[in-house]
Write a structure and sequence with these properties.
One of its GO terms (molecular function) is UDP-glucose 6-dehydrogenase activity. The chain is α/β, with parallel strands linked by helices and 438 residues long. The chain contains 18 helices and 14 strands. The radius of gyration is 24 Å and the shape is elongated. Bound molecules: uridine-5'-diphosphate-xylopyranose.
Length: 438
């Protein structure tokens, strides 16, 4: 099959590379000429483990190409994927669909032979209808169907998620389009991957419902963690105790400083807006959005309380600023709320992140960026763990003790057990567990 992938952002690039690895002939198109030139040189603009090898390998065998030339790519394609950004619209939280509709308008006059236009971007229910209307308006005689095929890629494990998904969701009533989509995902049939084939609206909603449910699960366990802190209960055991119930499931019950990233914050907000628009407002998702936003801010106060109510003049070593490990993505990261609030409270911050510092430098002012974890810890009064990168999971405590004069550790990711840190002579505060005093 020949695939045109419009947009070489995170989703477009990963999906394009994986489809080419499935054996299809993929051309990734982007308007940004410098990005395309860099990709042609094999330079990957995002941090995603394994993506460089996948892209370069498939480029070498000629199955994956990059271009700015839509006009020569679309006519050849059996499937044209729209994988452009759908950011939150400033002010109202609606998904901004202008890039999706612009892509539809540009694709339309180029469609040649039967083509499936697939929305890969996360788009609110009804967007596929509008994409179809636009194409029909621009090219009334075009032979095409519009299908929805949401992505469920986690940053940091996106290739694995694409190649070994729990399921593939395809939304279209058109049998011809279903056949094309089955062919594209054929390698997954060998693994007996379930394929949910449904109508377009359902497929579009599945993506939002999935992310909103996971965000709800996280917010739920975060609230249980707050109750644990007040009552002496342990949230890790609560998560285990409920997660072993097959009806609940053990994943996404890790309490922390609140969810961030490119999907959950944006998609929960967009779902709230869609629900309002269609007259079926969602109390649950609205509450999750609010709970998560206020939680991130509250985390700064948790650090201040752990420090005895005042951090002015204190040196805080921050380990991790990205919204989760194995990514350089800073979007809606809790660190963007926590660090400025600590600075406003008079603390000075020295931070280290294995991949996120370049991006973070533009987003957080007045932080002293360190070369490595111990360099950040050097001279600190407080050690604050914000992201659970593997390399922070095995700190050498004797080295930490020598480097920092303070004896307070605040771990917002629960990567240590309280007694093991206390045994090293530190007072340890974490999420949903009683503090351990040195
Ligand atoms: C998510 C979805 O998982 C993916 O299916 C979707 O397509 C895109 O959004 P991603 O944003 O890359 O992926 O990261 P994910 O691993 O889901 O984590 C999202 C946020 O939730 C992170 O801030 C993470 O720290 C937080 N989280 C996750 C928790 O706080 N606790 C958990 O148990 C799991």
């Amino acid at each position: 099959m020949r695939v045109a992938m419009i947009g070489t952002g995170y989703v477009g690039l990963v999906s394009g590379a994986c489809f080419s690895d499935f054996g299809h002939e993929v051309t990734c198109v982007d308007k940004d000429a410098s990005k395309i030139e860099a990709l042609e040189r094999g330079e990957i603009p995002i941090y995603e483990p394994g993506l460089d090898v996948l892209v370069n390998g498939n480029m070498q065998v000629g199955r994956l190409t990059f271009t700015t030339d839509l006009a020569n790519t679309v006519p050849e394609a059996d499937a044209v994927f729209i994988a452009v950004g759908t950011p939150s619209r400033r002010g109202d939280g609606h998904a901004d669909l202008s890039y999706v509709y612009a892509a539809a308008r540009e694709i339309a006059p180029l469609l040649t032979g039967y083509t499936v236009v697939v929305t890969k971007s996360t788009v609110p229910v009804g967007t596929g209808d509008e994409v179809e209307r636009i194409i029909r308006e621009v090219a009334p005689d075009a032979d095409f169907d519009v299908a929805s095929n949401p992505e469920f890629l986690r940053e940091g494990s996106a290739i694995e998620d694409f190649k070994r998904p729990d399921r593939v969701v395809v939304g279209t009533d058109a049998e011809r389009a279903q056949d094309v989509m089955r062919e594209l995902y054929r390698p997954l049939f060998l693994r007996e991957t379930p394929m949910v084939i449904t109508n377009r609206q359902t497929s579009e909603l599945i993506k939002y419902a999935g992310n909103a449910f996971l965000a709800t699960k996280i917010s739920f366990i975060n609230e249980m963690a707050d109750i644990c802190e007040k009552t002496g209960a342990n949230v890790i055991d609560v998560a285990k105790g409920i997660g072993l119930d097959g009806r609940i499931g053990k994943l996404f019950l890790h309490a922390g400083p609140g969810y961030g990233g490119s999907c959950f914050p944006k998609d929960t907000l967009a779902l709230v807006k869609t629900a309002e628009d269609v007259g079926a407002p969602t109390g649950i998702v609205s509450a999750v959005v609010e709970a998560n936003a206020s939680r991130k801010k509250r985390m700064a106060h948790k650090v201040i309380e752990a420090a005895g109510g005042d951090v002015s003049g204190k040196k805080i070593a921050v380990l991790g600023v990205t919204f989760k490990p194995n990514t350089d993505d800073m979007r809606d990261s809790p660190s963007l709320d926590i660090i400025p609030l600590l600075k406003e409270s008079g603390a000075s911050i020295r931070a280290f992140d294995p991949a996120g510092m370049d991006e973070a430098k533009d987003l957080i002012d007045g932080v002293d960026w360190a070369d490595n974890a111990y360099d950040a810890i050097n001279g600190a009064d407080i050690l604050l763990i914000l992201t659970e990168w593997n390399e922070f999971r095995a700190l050498q405590w004797d080295k930490v003790a020598k480097a920092m004069p303070g004896r307070l550790v605040v771990d917002l990711r629960n990567i240590y057990t309280p007694h093991e840190v206390a045994r090293q002579g530190f007072t340890y505060h974490s999420i949903g567990r009683a503090p351990a005093i040195a």
